[in-house]
Amino acid sequence: MVMMGMKMAAVSSVSLLLLLTSIVTTTDSQDCNYHAAKKQDVTLPLTYVLKDSDQLRWLHGSKVIFDRRAKVMVTGNPDDVSQNGSLRLRNMDQSKAGTYTPTVYDDGQRIGNLEPMVLCVMDPVSQPQVTSECDKTLVTFTCMQSQTSPEVQFEWSEDGKVNPKLKERSFKGVLKDMEQRVYRCRVYNEVSSLTSAPFRQNCTQSDPVSQPQVTSECAKTLVTFTCMQSQTSPEVQFEWLEDGKVNPKLKERSFKGVLKDVEQRVYRCRVSNKVSSLTSAPFRQNCTQSVLDNGFIFPADIYGINIWIIIGGGGGVVLLLIIIVIICCVTNKRKKRMKIKDEEELRLGWSNSNPQCQHQNHPPDHQKQQPHQHTHRQQKPAGHSTGPRQHRCKQPPGQQRNQLPQVPSHQPEPGTRRAEQGRRQPAGNDSERPPLPQPRRKIQK
Fold first, then answer.
1. Which of 217, 257, 360, 396 has the highest CB neighbour count under 10 A?
2. Which residue windows does the record flag with biased composition (Basic residues) (predicted)?
3. Taking Cα atoms as reference points, which of 251, 118, 125 lies closest to residue 190?
4. Which CATH code fits 207-310?
């Protein structure tokens, strides 16, 4: 009998264990009817109205976590439940998830049919972000966030309106249909919900255009205008303004025109794409039309210097050289004239410094009686000077007598003439003007 009792007790224990296991398995397989986010507080409600004499007990699975008989605490803390008996759970984590069962006793009798509550603990959703992936004419939108649990759900809004057809993490669409639409995705679960920032596909989104600049290039009678800017994508469009008005015919990066027709016109180019638009500064062609006889047009600038500045500078240099040459010629001519005048004055001064002898002004009688000697003195060889030598003074008669008689000759003695020229006497009559130099005379032999 004893052995039979022990066997029956063992069978009962195994049956009870299987029953509890089945209960726990059944509880875990049930859907959660209460949810809590990690690190948050949650309250499980008690649907029964307690009396002061009632005994309240809360079980987490099969473990008693709170027990109060009337107002006497047996297990737990008074703050673990509210005044109406609801269970307070703080700083939730995964270990606190599971089945919570409330029980109420009145005088040892279990009263009420209180249902167990299944509490699930999960992470709150993270901030989502929308991305796009391009594939030729298609674009794929994806809502990126860190969680991948099946409890996370997605919702898409299109231009501010929820699209009920879009409930997946990602979806595809035709690029041309979604080019200008703005999308947002909302990620949520039972404990939290977050929405992404507005997003527009970037498959056709271009960078802002850079500041354009107009340049010109000259070729004889033609000029080419070019709108310079850094981007070369096909989305960039060009527009030309001519004297402040849009020219609908000019829609390319560059165009050509006749120089004489566009010489005084002001041009501006406008560069635009789908995200930005910029206009250049006003520009006037810098080709200076100077057609020579051969039809050649030289550029307006040479090494960055305007051609007219170079021409003006060259003309000024040439004019300065001409003035310098004229001044030099005039100065040289004046010097020559002054030199001739100085020579004449020197001759006259030299003549005035040799006084005329009195016997020239008052010739003595013996000079009159010897005209052949005077004639002989006037006839001089062609090789001698006819200057002041004609006015040298003759020696006094006493001195002539003391000298030896001279042999008549057609040519005077050089030494005597030099001595006479070197002799200077004070001027006898300063009022008389000396004779001017006479031209040479040829002597007939």
1. 257
2. 369-379
3. 125
4. 2.60.40.10
